[in-house]
Amino acid sequence: MFVKKIEMELSDVARLCVPSGKVWNVKVRKDNGKTCFQDGLQEFMEYHSISQWHVLGFRYDGNSQFHVVICNTSASEINYPCDLHDSEETDKESG
């Protein structure tokens, strides 16, 4: 039901933002009244070592951007380290 409320405002690409600051661009697929993440989601899952028993919490922040919290099998939030390489790349791009 939640997706129906935001479906029209979602672009073709969603941004998944995790607490470490890393941002993932994931393709949004809309087909036959269903909306799901597609291209890029597998890489997101592999990078964070997400298995079938992990729980992901999504908060929609608008503009096709989601804040994602990843919890382990004990339902405790996983605190991933900041990716220094990505931070350096972001700094180079912005200035």
TrEMBL record:
* Name of the molecule in the record: TF-B3 domain-containing protein
Keywords, sorted A to Z: DNA-binding, Nucleus, Transcription, Transcription regulation
Q: Which Pfam families match?
A: B3
CDD domains with a match to the protein in the record: B3_DNA
Where is it predominantly found?
nucleus
GO CC annotation terms, alphabetical: nucleus
PROSITE patterns, from UniProt? B3
Q: Which residues form the TF-B3 domain?
A: 1-74
Q: Which SUPFAM superfamilies does the record cross-reference, listed alphabetically? A: DNA-binding pseudobarrel domain
Show the GO MF annotations: DNA binding
* Entry's localization field: Nucleus
